[in-house]
Write a structure and sequence with these properties.
With 341 residues, the protein is an alpha+beta fold. It has nine helices and 14 strands. The protein binds 2,5-anhydro-1,6-di-O-phosphono-D-glucitol and manganese (II) ion (MN) (2 copies).
């Protein structure tokens, strides 16, 4: 594996892995390279956001009923354009669009379907807080001669053939897995290349950080309230002091916990009757991060069920997400099971 070649470019990392993969045709490599290019373009737009007046509300409302910011639209269009032009996808599903995005006829129809969150944490754009892009890759399951259909788009997370995210923060880091471990690449803006900086990421079995929006405490179910109370009384109860960290950008909260250890929770809450399963989306947020965290030795569940085994019923399905160090996620699940209280 190319994981010990610190500083290798992501392009060479992908080509090396393609050479090591029996029967690889280069199709998957071309798809990933198109994604890398899209993320470089988004990083450029994010970096200059404050300068070219693309900050602020674009005035439209997306399928989630949320105000779309100009950078959301730019990121969404960039991913659509670059992945369509790769000729490797037969359909796309964006958090920003209601339906499956068909590939313009001038491009070949490829064998992959990609779900993506073009800009995660977009409410943080104007405050210059880290935001990101998340993607999740499946092979199509229907006949190549037919148009893509819901069967291709609604596959459980276990069927992913790759997933990843980019954080546009103090540095721009791309973290992804194709099923053989997790690698992180940092963008060197002076040469415009992502270089391997975090080979073979493994998350600690247990952490001391918990991430949850405590403003929603009054809307949580009892097991969640009991778990967070237990964490906060931690030193008295179990001699471990947990620190609260919450950025409000899923990719930033997830990435910190992946490296340092800890647990992130966005449970179902009763705040919004339209979102009884919580705010986060199964297909473009929970599944890709669950794939990554399991590849890094972590755990991801709804509290009751492994995220990767959730059967999707519709493309913008929401889900509770409890994710991070396996021992911490297990403790939460024991509160849900009534084994702890
Ligand atoms: P997005 O910007 O793609 O809609 O995602 C925002 C999500 C996620 O990034 C973050 O974890 C969560 O919203 C924060 O929600 P709260 O502000 O309700 O805590
Ligand atoms: Mn998001
Ligand atoms: Mn988003």
């Amino acid at each position: 594996m190319a994981t010990d070649n610190i500083g290798i470019t992501i392009s060479n990392h992908l080509l090396l892995n393609q050479q090591l993969t029996e029967g690889a045709t280069g199709s998957y490599t071309r798809l990933l390279q198109a994604l890398v290019l899209a993320c470089k373009i988004i990083q450029r737009d994010v970096a200059k956001a404050g300068l070219v007046d693309i900050l602020g509300r674009a005035g439209t409302v997306n399928v989630q009923g949320e105000e779309v910011q100009k950078l959301d639209e730019l990121a969404n269009n960039t991913v659509k354009r670059r992945l369509s032009a790769s000729g490797e996808v037969c359909g796309l599903v964006s958090e920003e669009e209601a339906d499956i995005i068909e590939i313009p006829r001038q491009y070949p129809q490829g064998g992959y379907v990609v779900h993506f969150d073009p800009l995660d944490g977009s409410s943080n754009i104007d405050a210059n807080v880290s935001i990101g892009t998340i993607f999740s890759i499946y092979r199509r399951v229907t006949e190549p001669s037919n148009d893509i259909n819901l069967q291709d788009a609604l596959q459980p997370g276990l069927k992913q053939v790759g997933a990843g995210y980019v954080i546009y923060g103090s540095s721009c880091i791309l973290v992804f897995s194709t099923g053989q471990g997790v690698n992180g690449f940092t963008l060197d803006p002076s040469i415009g290349e992502f270089l391997l900086s975090h080979p073979n990421i493994k998350t600690p079995n247990k952490g001391k950080i918990y991430s949850i929006n405590e403003g929603n405490y009054g809307y949580w179910d009892e097991p969640t309230k009991n778990y967070v109370d237990w964490l906060k009384n931690g030193y008295a109860d179990h001699k471990i002091h947990y620190t609260a960290r919450y950025v409000g950008s899923l990719v930033a909260d997830f990435h910190r916990n992946l490296l340092y250890g800890g647990i992130f929770l966005y449970p179902a809450d009763l705040k919004d009757p339209k979102k009884p399963q919580g705010k986060l989306r199964l297909m473009c947020e929970a599944n890709p991060l669950a794939y990554i965290v399991e590849q890094a030795g972590g755990r991801a569940s709804t509290g009751k069920e492994r995220i990767l085994e959730v059967e999707p019923r519709y493309i913008h399905q929401r889900t509770p997400l409890i994710i991070g160090s396996p021992d911490d996620v297990r403790v939460y699940e024991e509160f849900v099971e009534g084994k702890r209280g």
